[in-house]
Amino acid sequence: MPSPRMPHLLAAVLAVALASASTACANQAVTIPPPAASTNASQPAAAAPAQPGAKVIFDTDFGELNDDSQALYLLLQNGVNVLGITTVSGNTWASEGAAYALRQLELENKQSIPVFEGASDPLMGSRAATLPSEAQQFGVDSSYAGAWSHPKPADYQHLAQPPYGGYAKTAKNNGNAVDFIVDTIKRNPHEVTLFVLGPATNVALAVKKNPEIVPLVKQVVYMGGAFDVPGNQGPAAEFNIWFDPEAARIAFTTPFADQLAIPLDVTDKVFYGKAEYDRITGGANTPITQAFKDLQAPEFTKDPKYRTHLWDALTSAVFLQPSLITGSVVRRVTVDTQDGVNYGRTLGFDPAHAPAGAQPVRIVQDIDIPKFYDFFVATLTRPLAP
To answer: Residue 309 — φ and ψ, nearest 5°?
Structure first.
């Protein structure tokens, strides 16, 4: 059947925007930092983060104490200057993410950080109605569909259920998330790191609208992709990429100065279970540890053997503690956007044999897991950062 995701007008606009971005950035030098030296697991985790005061835009499909939430805790507890939070639909609807982010900021006394609601649908529109045919034709596991699994709320203050502790008293910013990204990068040239922890829709729209920002971005950090391992959304794709492959392709093929990806290749190796939960909740009570108790205790009470992955939390950890990385590789990356079983697959090529347009990305393959958990637990169990 004809694909619902390629309206001709939007496709044409997208092509022009990509061409403009490429032209504006053709002479931008690409610098990928060398892999961190391997670390000895017996050594203690670093006492201080490597990037206190770093400026970050936190682009996210935020949930209640999900991996995005934990990633934000790690940044704020370690003195990172989060300039703003921009939400996107993925695991949650963009409006839900705004409500959850506002509530978490309120719990941390960080209400001064603005929250902007961003793209509610992928670049080529929602595929919710076509998920059954994707599953039937291509073997894609659509049992988890994120935001598409339930109706879109009327707005961020009218969710199906109120956020943990109730709706925040602080309102979201009425501005546009894409304009916020553009304006903030222009005001802080070569200083802003973009954390892309959900589908890359907001970032792709920002690049399409204002390609002149590309050489001004310091770094882009993604949680996304599956390079040498199977996807978690069918055999090929990782969820964040699968939700909006066209946006991911734009982001990865834009010549940002520095791109770092934390894919399933490494996140699949890091499990979170009751032992880690007990380490977080066994010490002094803080708003953070209380949230863990209230929101996670029922799961572990029901099933003490329950385990999950931390996905986005690893992005903040390696950003703050690069020495946690024990294995990484630089490849030139693009994304398959053709209909079929590989729709949303991240493609990483040897830099010497890459197709035109693929950009160099440092891909994290391994981390020191004991050190990561020492850092994770120490950060989440200390008093709230001022």
So the answer is: -105, 165
Q: Helices 369-381 and 274-281, interaxial angle, to 10°?
A: 30
> All domains of the chain, ordered by start, with CATH?
44-381 (3.90.245.10)
pLDDT digits (tens, 9 = 90+) for 285-318: 999 999 999 999 999 999 999 999 999 999 999 9
| The predicted structure's pLDDT at residue 142 | 73
Give me Rg for the CA atoms of the chain: 20
CA–CA gap between residue 39 and residue 108 (Å, rounded) = 33
Q: Looking at residue 352, what is its pLDDT?
A: 92
pLDDT at residue 40 above 70? Answer: no
Look up residue 38 and give its two tokens.
Answer: 């391997």
Closest CA to 99 of 180, 197, 168: 168
